[in-house]
Amino acid sequence: MSPVLKRPKEKFTLPAKYLLFILTLLCIGIMFLSFKTPVINSPINTVAGTVLVPFQNGISNIGSWLSEKSSQLAELADVLDENQKLKEEIDRLTIENTKFQQERYELSQLRELLELDEEYSEYQKQGARIIMRDTGNWFSTFVINKGSNDGIKINCNVIAGSGLVGRVTDVGPNYAKVTSIIEDNNNTSGLLLSTGDHLVVTGDLSTISDGMISFSKLVDSSGKAAAGDKIVTSNISEYYLPGLLIGYINEINTDSNNLTKSGTLTTAVDFEHLNNVLVIMELKQVVNK
Fold it and tell me: How many domains is the chain partitioned into structurally?
């Protein structure tokens, strides 16, 4: 007869979820009894103090930490919102400042034109705005927003800043093209005010970066011409009215023929920064040959 094998006894295990439930009930019960039991040194209070106080302290610390982080997040949100408002304010002020600088620049140019208008009050003039220019850094040729509909004609003299800019060389109904005295090989008959001697002013884009163009054929028989002397348009100029300021002598040299002098002059107009001009409506009187 075969021996009967005994099955090993199965070890009893309590599922974790039930264990957690029992411990939770135990904690609640201990807390309830601790509140109901008046004896300070009772075993229940001792257990409650041993088990629950650290647990409560931990919960309290976690609550304090969460409260602190919540406050920090709220402060961060306020800071971000304030930062966004400051950025928007900076953008608004930047736009306003740019607009103010542009208006101040235009006001300065308009003030110059007003002074120029008063200086040449004998001529009827019309203001115009530059709307286009050729490629390059200098206003050697450009287009204005006034044309034949406004009475503009070819060879109308154009002034700005402190003196002569150039003349109208092409005109349409609502625009006109202006060629400046600084354009390469553009000759203008000039007069040295200090001596009354004539000369020829020639445009030169290679030297205008220094604010200068050249002059030549000055017959200075008295030898009085000097740096700083004014040069204006002469009465024998083919296109320009007399007396319009061209610039000031910068450097003067005696030519190899010992009869004439040449050099450079500083223009009365800043040909790098032009925005508005005055067009003189009166044309130079030309004698038909």
Answer: 1
Q: Which two tokens stand for residue 78?
A: 């306020």
Q: Is residue 200 a contact partner of residue 213, using CB atoms and an 8 Å limit?
A: no
Domain that holds residue 139: 125-280
Query: Within 10 A of 243 (CB to CB), how many other CB atoms are there?
Result: 16
Alpha-carbon distance of 277 to 113, in angstroms, equals 7
From the list 160, 183, 163, the residue with the least C-alpha distance to 247 is: 163
pLDDT digits (tens, 9 = 90+) for 103-140: 676 667 677 778 888 888 999 999 999 999 988 889 99
Exposure letters 165-198 (e unless 16+ CB within 10 A, then b):
bbbbbebeeebbbbbbbbbeebebbbbbebbebb
Asked, for residue 256, whether it belongs to a domain, the answer is yes
- Asked if residue 253 is part of any domain, the answer here is yes
Instruction: Provide the residue type at 138 as one letter.
Output: W
User: pTM higher than 0.70 for the full model?
Assistant: no
Are 288 and 244 spatial neighbours (Cβ–Cβ below 8 Å)? no
